[in-house]
Amino acid sequence: MGRYLIPLGLFVxxxxxxxxxxxxxxxxxPSPLIDKPAPAFKVPQLHxxxxxxxxxxxxxxxxxxxVWASWCVSCRQEHPVLVExxxxxxxPIYGLNYKDQREAGLAWLNQHGNPYVISxxxxxxxxxxxxxxxGVPETFLIDKNGIIRYKHTGPVTPDAVQxxxxxxxxxLNAAS
Amino acid sequence: xxxxxxxxxxxxxxxxxxVQGILPIVGAARGDARLMGVARPAAHGQFVFVxxxxxxxxxxxxxxxxxxxxxxxxxxxxxxLEYRVAASWGSHEGSLLLWAxxxxxxxxxxxxxxxxxxxQVAARVVGVMGLxxxxxxxxxxxxxxxxxxxxxxxxxGRDLNPLLQDPGMVFHPPMLYMGYVGFSxxxxxxxxxxxxxQLDAAWARWSRPWTTVAWVSLTLGICLGSYxxxxxxxxxxxxxxxxVENASFLPWLVGTALMHSLAVTEKxxxxxxxxxxxxxxxxxxxxxxTFLVRSGVLTSVHAFATDxxxxxFILGLLVLVIxxxxxxxxxxxxxxxxxxxxxxxxxxxxxxxxxxxxxxxxASVLLxxxxxxxxDALKLGKISVGPPYFDAVFVPLMTPVLFLMAIAPFxxxxxxxxxxxxxxxxxxxxxxxxSALLLPLALGAWSPMVALGLFLSLWIFATSAQHLYLxxxxxxxxxxxxxxxxxxxxxxxxxxxxxxxxGVTVIGITLVKGYEQNLDVKMTTGDTAHLAGYTFKFxxxxxxxxxxxxxxxxxIEVTRDGKPVAMMKPEKRMYKVQQMPMTEGAIDPGFxxxxxxxxxxxxxGTEAWIVRIFxxxxxxxxxxxxxxxxxxxxxxxxDKRYRKLAERAATRRPATPAAAPAPAR
Amino acid sequence: MPRPDTFSRLLRQFAQALLFAxxxxxxxxxxxxxxxxxxxxxxxxxxxxLSELLRCLVCQNQTIADSHADLAIDLKKxxxxxxxxxxxxxxxxxxxxxxxxxxxxxxxxxxxxTMILWIGPFVLLAGGLSLLFFKLRKRxxxxxxxxxxxxxxxxxxxxxxxxxxxxxxxxx
Lengths: 176, 665, 172
Fold this sequence. Notes:
heterotrimer; A: 176 residues; alpha/beta; Glutaredoxin; five-stranded mixed β-sheet; two-stranded antiparallel sheet; B: 665 residues; alpha+beta; six-stranded antiparallel β-sheet; globular
């Protein structure tokens, strides 16, 4: 009955894929920017529009770039985690205030606390596009040479901080 | 109270489905008439309880019972009554209940029309359908009970997705599910035949009308869905190769192959194991579609809210139903035998080739649909497979199908030769080719795709005309043309009409793709725009309050050479509960073209609106073709032959299955 | 699903436009040929063509051209600017892929991992048709060989061919 088993065989393979597929999230995208240099940017600072911040200002240190906005609902969810992380001084967090109204952004930080060393103000979302941002919040881990080493899409959880971000920070700080 | 009654009915239906699924099959194996006799009453009982549950669900929607989770998430007190009823199958839970109801409807139909079947066959068929029912009822009760309560009750519902608030959506899902579930009958017949080891021409004859009716429902269901997308999504697209559309198209392609394969199995007793495999595949692909829509493994515009538990459950169901039947196939099909012989060039081989081509087309659509999942599962990256891929692959695969489709009815059974066929069809070929090469010039611009599409459809029309002519002229000795016309069997007319329907659809697709024109303009009151010889005058915008939306309704006067053509009213709507803007396009349908207008955004700070105007030549033919196919299918299914057979068989029970035609001599 | 601010923005525009329409209802309507929605319709056509090939990342399964999501609108703006700056279609597509990966392309690129996707259908077609042809020929020969047998003998022969080692070998 050899050839009559072929349909069954194909089906078994298909079921294998479907079973794996159940545990995948088709909406989660790996960033093509991992292990590539972070896109260059130079934009005003949210708190002081007359001053700018650029990628190259941050060369030589390991840092986190957190993309946030006052209109973003799940940013509120991750915010306490970021505030906590900032207090621990484990890694400097820079913010990218994405497509926001400046007053709304400032008010939001006043209300919820400001974990950012500096927040870049990306009013037209251009920097966001260069970083391939498609859903806020997103968080990038960038090394001393300005290379993106890790990207977290969606709200950062305490678990992700402990098990993914901090170990990588340690590793990158140890590297020259 | 009513929701609890619904839940209870579902539980009772599940118990009856178990009885219906087990006892008759055991009875058929043991030859126990008493156990086999359980099949019909159990099926009828199951139908009554599922129908009762369905009525309970509709009652919940009609009475705005927002203490039921399903009602609270998918309806609203401001929703018009007809959409409250339709909302009952707009959700995952509700559509499963609809699916179960359809399955029961088909089962009851089988019990009614199977009086002439041998008792064992009928018991097995009804039993298999009972087992499918067990799967779906258990799925519903365990993971997706449509009667789950919401405590405390919501003050009002979250409303039905505005995209679904449309007459097309009222009819589209039931039609589509009729088709999906309808293939379960052919599936059940196949499983019954494999179980009983009796796979012959009689089996094919019993399965044929059921398959055809299911295919008709699926055709019309897909057609409605496509037409709905056309007028509801606001820019006149009608097919997107979205995973969920593909999920409905796959069983259609395989179902089409199955219909043709059954014809050969019935007439010539051949292709038997292939036909059984197609019957299993058509229903399996319907089930796979359910999995894809409801498990969240693929991103689609239409996907239901997902829950991983459901995915696991449906996957288990797939393994049991499809895996089990394919195992049975591997075990029993080798004993089926070869059947009558035929030449490499013959109607059999033409049909078999088309079968193979349709199956390859289906396999390719399946490959494209699932490929992103394959790569992701193997950690090879994420990709998207969209319309550019499917267009590139599907057109070359379908071209030979359409070409051969016109030839097959001319090929003789058993044996024919290519030269003989070429002589028979040379005029049709010449006429189709020359007109296809010249027509595009007359229409404005020549392009190879337009010429190809026109050639294929004209080829189908020309051969169909020739075929009818030969039929009428054929037996010159007998009677008048009128009596000869009446002598043509329904099956032939059905085939003829459905084939012409394909040609009509191909014309629509070809011409709208080739010659569509559109214009994006800023319009304020009094402005005019010109497109394809028509003049569009913007008469202004007014506010209109719908039951659950506010709309800006524009009035546009269309004229041609100063003569009025239509007053069109495209709208931009804001649905209040779901906070969703919707574009309600206006269509002026016509025989050779549709005019389609949709409103874009208002321009801030002015009174102007962005207005998109489309001229879509022959677009309506896409759906008219599908309607032709549907009518053709119904005529074929109603062919007197099947009824005569039923009467004959009924008078000489126990029926011996009609003997397979003798092998060629 | 649009973001709440998208909705309120649309609602605002919507209300404004309606207000204008009513204010102006009494005024004599000016009649004229409607201006194209885009300043440069030729350019706009290219923008649309390109954005029909690209997937909107925040939507379920829509092209950037069809989507009204903020990101899709921003990306369309980027495409327009880049086309104005004289970039080629390929440069723009590469720009998108560099940021969002192959996922943005509705037409998957031909590379090692998509080989099966692109050639699979045609391999199936060729394989299916040649298998079919050989089977038909074999079948015809078998049938011709069986010409002189009675029905019963034929049935036996068919059963032997199916179950016997020869039948199996031939099947593979």
